[in-house]
Amino acid sequence: MIVFTLIVIGIVMVYSSTAIYAWQKYNDSAYFLKRHLLFILISVLCTASVMSFDYRILSKYAKKLVLLSLFFLVLLQTPGVSREIAGAKRWFRLLGLSFQPSEFANLAVIIYTASFLSRKGIARMEQFSFGFLPVIVVLGMVNLLVLIQPDLGTVVALSIVVFIMLFIAGARLAYLSYIFLPSLPFLYLLIFNVPYRRLRIMAFLNPWADSLGSGFQLIQSQVALGCGGIFGRGLGKSLQKLFYLPAAHTDFIFSILGEELGFFATVAVVGLFILLFLNGCKIVKSTRDTFGVFLSLGIISLLSLKAILNIGVSIGVFPTKGLPLPFISYGGSSLLVDMISFGLLLNVARFAAEP
Q1: pTM for the structure as a whole
Q2: Among 58, 92, 112, 182, which is most exposed with the fewest C-beta within 10 angstroms?
Q3: Looking at the domain assignment, is residue 324 inside a domain?
Q4: Burial of 262 (0-12, 13-18, 19+ CB in 10 A)
Q5: Strands of 97-99's sheet, edge to edge?
Q6: Does 94 map to a domain?
């Protein structure tokens, strides 16, 4: 019911934030709404499919899923195959729909990590070579291919989730520090040696220094939230969506929600994500199967982290990063993978009491 409520909110806000833009560009105010409903239909069917079998079967195919995700990520770099937008090669185009392989790679790595931890056992986590390093190698290969796209935000989010899973599994903090500390200089170079990332950080620190350039999006997001006040301007009455706030229906849909429906509506959405996290933790705690424990832990961590980062960007707590708000933002592959992940979470809950 929590996810159903978030999806309904998403349908309303996607139409509200895109109707005028869609009419101006496609002469059809429901253009994005119809595509979003199609994405939801496909996602629901896929969710029902992943709930129809015993999730523990996935443990046997974890390596193959990772290899498949690596194949897709490599295929993205093949000329003429991928779809390039603003210099980034992150999407395939198939039957008029876009698919982002990095979304699938996130889930594949979580499944592989959960399978590895369940097979090796918690006791083996004290061994660096056999209980820790293999997961890091797989994570590194996926992250390297995602960085080439380029997409640093997805790399950071996935790395945090995998580190959480390893920490809960009993990996020594010294092992985690061996990876984390040496990566800091590389992270610094990836941010400050790349012009558009450096601009994002500068805009985050002081958006008004370049209010019509790098700081424009963040300022317009905060203006939208501020103008919403307690009760909002009213549904459909946002002014920032009128070509002021870029990506209003994807990365910054939370800001349009706050402008139109007000502070209490944004608190309600945050509350729904908190309830989703708490119920996910219940599933983690009640599951007796080790693979199910780490699979549900990884899924609920990733969904919660994506929500935290998206909302944090909208209110100016984090630098701008193109992560959608789960179940609410417009998007094909992100919604599809989020729904499949949620279906797996429900699947784990079905078998929670079994040994």
Answers
A1: 0.88
A2: 182
A3: yes
A4: buried
A5: 82-85, 88-94, 97-99
A6: yes
| Domain count of the fold of the chain | 1
Two tokens, residue 66: 């990772």
**Residue 211 domain flag:** yes
Q: How far is CA 179 from each of CA 57, 92, 192, 198, rounded to the nearest angstrom?
A: 31, 32, 21, 24
Q: Is 355 a domain residue?
A: no
- The separation between CA 237 and the C-alpha centre of its own chain, rounded to angstroms, equals 28
Domain boundaries, position 12: 2-350
Residue that is written with structure tokens 């950080």 in the block = 201
* Residue type, position 98, single letter: S
Give 187-190 contacts, CB < 8 A, sequence gap 24+.
190/147, 190/152
Strand partners, 99: 92
Q: What is the pLDDT along the chain (355 residues), one digit of tens a residue?
A: 999 999 999 999 999 988 888 898 888 888 899 999 999 999 999 999 998 888 889 989 999 999 999 998 888 877 766 666 655 667 776 666 677 888 899 999 999 999 998 887 665 666 666 667 888 889 989 988 888 877 788 888 899 999 999 888 887 777 778 787 888 888 778 777 777 778 778 777 778 877 777 778 888 888 888 888 899 898 888 888 887 887 788 888 999 999 999 899 999 999 999 999 999 999 999 888 889 999 999 999 999 999 999 999 888 888 877 788 999 998 778 899 999 999 999 999 987 766 5
